From TrEMBL:
Family: Belongs to the major facilitator superfamily. FHS transporter (TC 2.A.1.7) family.
Domain Major facilitator superfamily (MFS) profile residue range list: 21-423
Transmembrane parts of this sequence: 20-46, 58-79, 86-104, 110-132, 153-172, 192-209, 235-261, 273-291, 303-319, 325-349, 361-380, 386-405
GO biological process: D-glucose transmembrane transport
Membrane topology, as annotated: Multi-pass membrane protein
Cellular component GO terms, alphabetical: plasma membrane
Entry-linked SUPFAM superfamilies: MFS general substrate transporter
Name by which UniProt lists this protein: Glucose/galactose MFS transporter
Amino acid sequence: MTTPQTSALVGEGSDNNYRFALTALTSLFFIWGFITCLNDILIPYLRLLFDLNYTQSMLIQFCFFGAYFIISIPAGLMVGKIGYKMGIVTGLLIAGAGCVLFYPAAMLEIYGLFLLALFILASGVTILQVAANPYVTRLGPEKTSSSRLTMTQAFNSLGTTVAPFFGAWLIFGGVADPEVSGVSKDTVSLPYFILAATLVLMAIVFVKLKLPEMGKVDQAAALPTKGGAWGQKHLVLGAIGIFVYVGAEVGIGSFLAIYLSQSDIGNMSSSQASHYISWYFGGAMVGRFIGAAVMQKFAGNRVLLFNASCAVALVAISMNSSGALAMWSLLFVGLCNSIMFPTIFSLALHNLKESTSQGSGILCLAIVGGAIVPLLQGVLADMTSVQFAFILPLLCYVYIAFYGFRGHRPGAFKRMLDEKETA
């Protein structure tokens, strides 16, 4: 169904409006990538400040990505009522409020308050994702939606690439060896105050911008299938794909500084190892720029299958080696991660029509994998070793390869069940 607002964009001038909107949206992808990656610096910082074990450290990711599970469905309903643009403004303001809460958390040195601040911050980022991801897929032809989302996600990776440099310097305060010198409770406030000011400024800018009015759902319009988006099996399988992808990416990123600081892997301090997180996310950035071009000629599901298979091989190599080989094989997984999220996201939203906002909320709900998988990885690391715990991300990439091979097809799940009954 075409609304009066969107119909005005079809035809002369619509391409220019779309290009302007996409340019504005790239700033959002950058900022939430920056925010998310700061968690990987925050983990070793708070681990030193509060003397946490691996499982307790992963509560940082649990609270951050747990917000996706709690907020995504309400966010999808909200965005369906107020539209993509105002959803973005709301998300920016809530994320800014979470950043401000880092100041009392640092002054009082209360770990639980840090976790609450992260939850509020992540709630705002969740709303941003629910609004911005489907916005990008609808600003142009459906057949190139994977390519567009991959390109904008490349700027998300740019944020995750530069965040470790600024985060390590600001949070660790330039301390060469924080394990020896200790960490200051004051330094964590500065980067989040800067972020709070930036987010509020961006919210003001987006209120002023003239963007295509999209995302509001006509409540009287018929949904494409019974049960709306939940009735689309390729969406449900895609949600599982998002769950395991985010879990694998976050799990590896969360343990990188700890893993590389081990004597048999990188033999360096946590502060030095934190800088290598940029290599991991930088690979994703480079891969997304390449992937955006590649997927103009090759089907997104085939590229997804290839990248997931390479990730399985690289994680397996890192688990069964040591030194530079173990270190660099894991870092290069970032390159494989590049196109996974936007490709799974766009494949899962295919042909949802009026249920797109609901589908986006379901997919963002699945980002809770970033809370569950790293926490389980932390428990496994406490029970065995950090290196063996990478078996969880490896299994996640195996499922993503399946989704690229078969699970992305509409009705694929039903066909699988029918084939089993026939057999």
